[in-house]
Amino acid sequence: MQPYRVWAEIDLCKLKHNLAEIKRFLNPGTKILAVLKADAYGHGAVVIAKYLEKKVDYIGVGDSQEALELRQASINIPIIVLGTIVEGEMSQVIEADITVAVHTLEQVAKLNEEAKKQNKKVKIHLFVDTGMARLGVSHTQFATVLKTIKCCDNLIFEGIASHFSSASEKNPVFSYSQLDRFMWVLNHASRENFTPEMIHIANSAGFINYPASQFSMIRPGLSLFGINPGYQTKEHPQLQPILSLHSQIAFIRKSVSEGSPISYDRNYYTSCPTDIATIPVGYNDGYRRLFANPSPYGKMAEVIIQGITAPVAGKVTMDYTMIDVGHIPEIQVGDRVTLIGKQGNSEITVENLADKALTIPYDIFCGLSKRVVRLYKLDDDGDFLPAEKIIALLNQESESVSKLK
What we know:
Blueprint: E1 6-11, H1 12-24, E2 31-35, H2 37-41, H3 45-52, E3 58-61, H4 64-72, E4 79-81, H5 90-95, E5 99-102, H6 105-117, E6 122-129, E7 137-138, H7 142-150, E8 155-161, H8 173-191, E9 198-200, H9 204-209, E10 217-218, E11 243-248, E12 251-256, E13 261-262, E14 268-269, E15 274-279, E16 302-305, E17 308-311, E18 321-324, E19 336-343, E20 346-348, H10 350-356, H11 361-366, E21 373-377, E22 385-386, H12 387-404
Parallel strand pairs: 1-21, 2-3, 2-10, 3-4, 4-5, 5-6, 6-7, 6-8, 8-9
Antiparallel strand pairs: 1-11, 11-19, 12-15, 13-14, 15-18, 16-17, 16-19, 19-20, 21-22
């Protein structure tokens, strides 16, 4: 038994498998930008980046702090901030040799000015809004921004990018309209003698559902972690979820009588004499209040103990969740509890859990708090180890490879 109240087990062998599956569907020469936003969707960005450093071409993050954290952890692969950065962040980003996605004319000018102060050049990828309406230069203003970039001696125009809003939808009409707009942008740039090395629009769903969107680079995120993002084709990567979530029984109240209220507000009453187990995981860990039973959406959440599913009893509290375990024989304090993943013949997928809260797997993963200990496994027959031990092992491997060269 692990000495933790709640922990996630992250299998890097499965990450390797998923990356190989993604590569199997790529056009020759297509590069991979691994999207590790939001602490690698809750999987731990430093460890995932260290593992992928020699296996992908670029790492994408959501903001400058995420990028700087990776640089401080000695991640030397090219890193791009895919989101926006504010003026006060530009100095550190340029110092750390981080690529910047630019979304406005003002950003272009201020980045060039800051890079000139440091006597440096900064790589930029110009993001164009083709229909997401979140960030990016309007495709109708694209030409004006190009002219400005031409005058900026301290900017290296490395890429043009956009973002699909609906690549997982069954109806492809809007995605094709975005792709058409992006092609218009690329053709215009070519006429102006702009031929950036990196051209990218495709996320996980995009590169499979719309093969023409692969261009020179794709940006897989959720698919790396083993979640089907909405592939609509018969042939697609066979992915394996790399994260499972676990806790352990901390307390058991035996022989709870029929009709007893459980948890806050007495929303749940036992329907027969039973046992109630308490597990030390709650909404402060990322196990949502919406996983209560009864559920506001009528979708009861369950956990797995001794390979048997057991329902949540009452409301999820900040630090604890109660489970009805009267049907599980010889249950004991310390028994392993699986909240996401397989145990015996039973399985709870992150998609199952997300459905209980009417949300998406991204939301569940990103909601796992820092109280959830992340453990990692490098080999099929290896143990799950804390991040610092895995990073040390990965550094040893990297040093050994360098000596062989």
